[in-house]
Design a protein that fits this description.
Elements: E1 3-9, H1 14-24, E2 29-34, H2 39-52, E3 55-58, H3 65-78, E4 83-88, E5 91-93, H4 97-112, E6 117-123, E7 133-138, E8 141-144, E9 152-155, H5 156-162, H6 174-184, E10 189-199, E11 205-206, E12 211-212, H7 218-229, H8 237-257, H9 262-278
Helix pairs in contact: 1-2, 7-8, 7-9, 8-9
């Protein structure tokens, strides 16, 4: 198989990154698109890539996951690869994940007469799936409503039809947006249940409500981008309703009563709402 994995890194844990390389070494080619903001860490990631025979390209700072993915995808296409597996630096492919993705794609292509996007099944440390399952169409194969930025097998034809990722979103909803846009252009998106991808959830777990707070600045992108996505015609209506409710709960309950760094989180969330109303995209302007 002529496949390359594009891994976006951001101030990555080198041990975890090395584990990802080892899990895929000898199976597929790899290319790191590095968003790290630390020059010292970027050099260490580059050295690790060289030691493991992994391609490396520096974004010279954090340009957002969308642009980092796009640059990696464009480089992969220029290198002659037509199949691309998108990966994060905190997601560990389980044994046979890539093989299952390809077999599932072959099965669905033969049944439906079109080349689908195939998503791995992201699971947390306890083995619980984090994916949104849709209709079952074959054994352990389901329609996938929301793709994630890691463990997704794409082909050049998908980018020809749907285009690349929306860079002005920067982070949060980037993967969802591309998937829904692709669906609106009649691209079939499938989840392979047995293609397991170990995925780490965000930090800052609040045990009382079984939720994760994450970094305060992420509230800016979450609030702004979710609101922007609610204005798109191709965004699922059920997602719009659930996310608006979640934002209201987060803004009026979780941030003031459950999370730490309350004032900072409230500030970033409010900035996200403000910039949505002003129609501002891109990186946050501090």
């Amino acid at each position: 198989m002529k496949l390359i994995g594009v891994i976006v890194t951001y101030n990555s844990n080198l041990e975890k990154l090395s584990s990802i390389f080892k899990a895929l070494t000898g199976e597929i080619e790899l290319l790191v698109s590095d968003n790290s903001t630390s020059t010292e860490l970027s050099q260490k990631i580059k050295k690790l890539c060289e030691e493991c025979g992994v391609g490396y390209v520096s974004m010279k700072g954090n340009v957002g996951i969308a642009k980092a993915q796009n640059e990696g995808i464009k480089m992969a296409l220029q290198m002659g690869f037509e199949d691309i597996l998108l990966l994060d630096d905190d997601s560990l492919p389980h044994k046979n994940m890539v093989e299952i993705l390809f077999k599932t794609r072959q099965l669905i292509t033969s049944q439906y007469g079109q080349l689908p996007v195939i998503c791995a099944n992201p699971c947390d440390a306890d083995g619980h799936s984090l994916a949104k399952y849709g209709k079952k169409i074959a054994d352990s194969v389901f329609i996938c409503r929301d793709i994630t930025s890691s463990g997704t097998l794409l082909n050049k034809t998908h980018f020809d039809i749907a285009g690349l990722h929306e860079e002005r979103l920067f982070i949060d909803c980037v993967d969802f947006e591309w998937g829904w846009r692709a669906k609106s252009k009649k691209i079939l998106i499938i989840l392979a249940q047995n293609a397991i991808l170990g995925h780490e959830l965000g930090t800052g777990k609040v045990d009382l409500i079984n939720a994760r707070s994450g970094s305060p600045i992420r509230h800016y992108y979450q609030f702004r981008n979710i609101l922007f996505m609610c204005t798109r015609k191709y965004t699922p209506f059920s997602w719009k309703v659930s996310q608006i409710l979640k934002l209201l709960v987060k803004y009026f309950v979780l941030i003031p009563f459950c999370f730490d760094e309350k004032s900072l989180r409230f500030k970033y969330a409010s900035m996200g709402v403000r910039d949505f109303l002003l129609g501002r995209y891109g990186s946050i302007a501090l």
